[in-house]
Fold:
Amino acid sequence: MRFYRPLLIAFVACWAVAGAAWGEPIALTATPVPLDPANPARVDLGRLTYRGGLILQSFDARFGGWSDLRVSRDGARLTAISDHGFWLQARLLYDAAGRLAGLADADLGVLIDTLGRRVTGRRGDAEGLATSPDGGFYVSFERDHRIWLYPPARPPFSLPPGAVPMPPRAAEMPDNGGIEALLRLADGHLLMLSEELRDGQENVGWLHDAAGWHELHYRAADEFKPTGLAELPGSGGDVLVLERRFTFLSGMGVRIVRVPRPTLKSGAHLGGEELAKLQLPLTADNFEGLATAPGEAGTARLYLISDDNYTVLQRTLLLMFEYKP
Structure:
C-alpha cells in the first residue's frame, strides 16, 4: 500500500486544490500510547515527565509526513505542516489530570505559493514552522531552499506568503538537508539550523536581526541532527533543540537539549544541556517537530510530533512532556 500512497495523494490534492487551500474537516483517530510499552506506568524521561501521548491516524491519504508544529500559548490548539505541502489544525484535548487525551475539530488544507497556487513536488517540502508576532507563520522549505512568511489569516496559510531573504550560504545546503529547525524568538530574532550543512562536526545556522543574517554553529551529538526548535517559556529566552537520529544501525531516537539564550549570537559555537533522550524500545519514531507552551506553577509543556514518511512502517506520534526548570 505504501508504494501507491504518493500517487493517491497527488490525485486527491489535484481533485480540490482551491477548496482545500481554505481547509476542510478531516476525521482522525487518536489512540493513547505509553512512554514505555514494557512498563506503562513509567513517566520519567531524563529531566522530563511524560504527560500523555497519542497515535494519530486517518483514512485520508493526505494525512501524514508532519515535519513541525506549533501549539498556542494556552495549549488549546495545534498547527502542523507536512513535507507534502499540507497544513493541519486541531483542538487539543486533555483529561482531568491535564494529560494529553485526544484531538478534535481537525482541519486540513494545502500550502500555497506567493501567487496563490498550491505548492507541489519539490516545492512542497515544508520542514520548519515558526510563528510571527501578528499571528502569521514562517515556513521553511527543503530542496528548493527558502522561507516564506504567511500573513495572519483564518484559516491559516490561505493568503499568499512573502519571501524572506536567505543568507548566501543557504545555497550550499544539500537538497534533503536544509532548514528543518526554525524559530522566531520572543525578542524578534529568527533562528534557524541546517540539518546537513556543516563546518567540520558542527551544523551551520543563522540568527537574523535588523542588520540581517549572522552565521553561527551548533554541535549535535554523534549521529544526531537538529530538526526542531522551541523557546522555553519563562526561561528568559532559552531555546530547546530537538536532535534526531535515524540510522539503520542505531535506529530512531531524539535528544532534547537546552541552549542558554545569552549564547545565541553571531559567530557562536552552540551547545547545551541534554534534558532527555528518547529512543527504542521506548515509544519512539521519526520525531521532527518540537513545540512548547507554558504549564502550571512555572512548568513548561513540550510537544513532539513524528513524520511517518507516508509509510505503514512508521507512525504519527504526538507526545507531551512536562519540564520543571
